[in-house]
């Protein structure tokens, strides 16, 4: 009997203990509860992220989210980079919306939830150009009723942003370490100087050197792109999609590869402001080349400027979104909206 009483008392004690843990946990006094409380405190007062929607471009689904602009304020469209997705830019979108902008983020074709939905419908990634990506975004903007937006393009997204100016009026372009050319133009530019020197000594040797560089670049680019994407996926946790497998994500990026240089995508009549952001430590979009492209736009009479920073990673928009948000807000404040 005594053992039975002790057993009942022990069970009662355990029940009370578990109840106390549950109550205290909900009150933020346990480690798990404290974490939850911190998250709720951090998110309190912030505008909840809008739910996602899908538009259709030529039957292909394209995922987007839209933070609606306050009255009289512009909408900024965020165009993500190759092998990325809009989820990675949510902190930037939230910061910009809290500063009074409308914001739209899109998962490009062959990327993120757009690709996941497309694959669920029985299709696989297929070749997609800058222009087709831009047409899909234009469809999203039309469905959402957004007109004359400002376009922010990061890396590969800069090519899509430039192509979008061919399709709809935009209030301005913000190109953050943007896709300059799939062929390593920075390397070619320095090689041309060497070719010129060799040609002075032996024109045939200079010609052979020049052709060797060009042919090697063209022949090796598809395989080197694959290698670069695989290496980037393996080395950078921030590039990995929670929606896709490694192979799906890399295949989608390869199918989205476009060899059109960025400046060729801008229409001749384009006159909206262009703002570039370049970093001295960025090997993907080298600062000297971006500065040269900016000079070409200025020579055409465009309002184009570069903000050059000495040290900033290519993925700074994900690492330090508040810094990029400040740059965007500062530039937009000077646009004739």
Protein model, in words:
With 337 residues, this protein is of the alpha/beta class. It folds into two domains: 2-43, no CATH class; 53-184 and 218-332, Rossmann fold (3-Layer(aba) Sandwich), CATH 3.40.50.1820. Helix content is 50%, strand content 13%. The protein has twelve helices and eight strands. Helix 3 links the parallel strand 3 and strand 4 (102-106).
The proportion of strand residues reads: 5-15%
> Would you identify the CATH architecture of the largest domain?
3-Layer(aba) Sandwich
Number of helices: 12
End-to-end distance:
85 Å
Radius of gyration: 25 Å
Mean model confidence by pLDDT: 81
H and E order: HHEEEHEHHEHEHHHEHEHH
CATH class assignment of the largest domain: Alpha Beta
């Amino acid at each position: 009997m005594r053992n039975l009483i002790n057993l009942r008392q022990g069970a009662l004690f355990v029940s009370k203990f578990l109840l106390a843990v549950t109550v205290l946990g909900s009150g933020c006094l346990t480690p798990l509860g404290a974490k939850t409380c911190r998250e709720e405190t951090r998110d309190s007062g912030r505008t909840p992220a809008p739910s996602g929607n899908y538009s259709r471009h030529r039957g292909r689904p394209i995922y987007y989210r839209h933070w609606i602009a306050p009255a009289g304020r512009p909408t900024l469209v965020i165009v993500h980079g190759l092998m990325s997705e809009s989820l990675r830019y949510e902190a930037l979108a939230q910061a910009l919306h809290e500063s009074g902008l409308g914001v739209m983020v899109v998962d490009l074709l062959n990327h993120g939830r757009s690709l996941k939905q497309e694959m669920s419908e029985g299709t696989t990634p297929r070749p997609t150009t800058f222009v087709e990506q831009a047409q899909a975004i234009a469809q999203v903007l039309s469905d959402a009723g957004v007109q004359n937006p400002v376009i922010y393009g990061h890396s590969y997204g800069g090519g899509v942003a430039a192509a979008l100016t061919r399709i709809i009026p935009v209030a301005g372009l913000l190109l953050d370490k943007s896709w300059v050319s799939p062929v390593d133009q920075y390397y070619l530019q320095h090689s041309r100087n060497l070719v010129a020197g060799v040609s002075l000594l032996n024109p045939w040797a200079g010609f052979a050197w020049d052709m060797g560089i060009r042919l090697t670049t063209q022949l090796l680019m598809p395989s080197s792109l694959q290698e670069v994407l695989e290496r980037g996926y393996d080395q950078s946790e921030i590039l990995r999609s929670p929606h896709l497998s490694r192979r799906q994500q890399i295949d989608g990026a390869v199918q989205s590869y476009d060899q059109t240089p960025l400046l060729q995508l801008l229409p001749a009549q384009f006159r909206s402001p262009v703002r570039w952001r370049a970093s001295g430590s960025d090997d993907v979009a080298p600062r000297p080349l971006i500065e040269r492209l900016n000079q070409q736009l200025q020579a055409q009479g465009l309002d184009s400027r570069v903000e050059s920073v000495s040290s900033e990673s290519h993925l700074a928009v994900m690492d330090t979104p508040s810094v990029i948000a400040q740059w965007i807000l500062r530039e937009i404040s000077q646009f004739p909206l």
